[in-house]
Amino acid sequence: MTWQEYCFFSSCFKPDIVPNPDQKKSISSWKHSSFRRISLSDLSSSTLSEDLSVSLAGSNLHVFTLQELKVITQNFSSSNFLGEGGFGPVHKGFIDDRMRPGLKAQPVAVKLLDLDGSQGHREWLTEVIFLGQLRHAHLVKLIGYCCEEEHRLLVYEYMPRGSLENQLFRRFSVSLPWSTRMKIALGAAKGLAFLHEAEKPVIYRDFKASNILLDSDYTAKLSDFGLAKDGPEGDDTHVSTRVMGTQGYAAPEYIMTGHLTAASDVYSFGVLLLELLTGRKSVDKSRPYREQNLAEWARPTLKNPRKLNRVMDPRLEGQYPEIGAQKAAAIAYQCLSHRPKLRPTMSEVIKVLEPLKDLDDTQSGTFVYVSTDSEFPRETKRKKEMKKENGQFHHRHKLHDGHKNKSRSFKSPVVFTETAIQQNLG
């Protein structure tokens, strides 16, 4: 359906079609008791002409006028410009406590649909329907929307640190420490798990660094639900749809067949976890040809701890726990499996990532420290004495300054198979 066709029947205000009694009943039951989430497929063309504030009764969404949004963004001033994506430009605004009863004073982000952009009314409506009903600590909060004539706007909570993409890849940005990276990965994983395990599952379909927003303490929240789809129900194993998403993140089986499952999101999460580990973009045309696709280049090294340090982000300067990096790499390897059934669920990913954020950033093999004899266990002391007797013991300084940024080599190579990784993580 074209944008012009949507404009023909999608007036959001002053509905001239009254919902049928059954529909009113379902809306009322949703508002006052447990409910089955409505989806885009539940709405007919006639429903689209109704006031969305009625269709989404109980969602606590506020309906703003275009004039109100012009006021709070200072007429979409360039000084308030935050960025622009496929949907359109985003501006910062401020709502005072006099605008709406029950709406507290707060900064907001206002996203304006670009009528000449790659997205349209369907993506706008999808976002309103999903975020109008879904609430979670790791999903960005939709405060309200505006639908006047051809204008389509969305009003979100303001996320002060912007997108993960900017924090991770922006030139001259401060490098994120290990604990912060794992906190972000864990938060994003929890957001995906919530969607996948909902009573009516949701497939996010566009999981990427630019769609993960960060609040002041780096809590990650998923945003931009314009491409989200309801997951398969009943005996269905997948959702068939045209291939959408972002190059470098999309699962290979989805690209080839158009079959969409929760495992498609898991693959995308694996790519994002690689970005956090390596500091590289999912696709980077400026690199040598074999290194341009991050998943293809890095995945073979993830199952061998001896090679892992070669792909870790140099901006971490070795300040990460080796065992933590190995566990994160192992779960990323599983997420990136070319066999969807071998990929973990997001709940399984969470179990692996949960303890990693609390590991000390300095527990890396790059730091060499030799303790006094009294601090060694007895068995270790005996080994040292044996070495002395054999003339094999050499005294080392506490810190080898010239080598403090080189990783410790392993005594023997360890190579994980996918099955072994699953057993190890279990």
From TrEMBL:
Residues 76-357 form the Protein kinase domain. Keywords: Cell membrane, Membrane. The keyword Cell membrane applies. Residues 393-409 have a biased composition (Basic residues). The keyword Magnesium does not apply. Residues 388-410 are annotated as: Disordered. It is found in: Cell membrane. It comes from the Eukaryota. This is Protein kinase domain-containing protein.
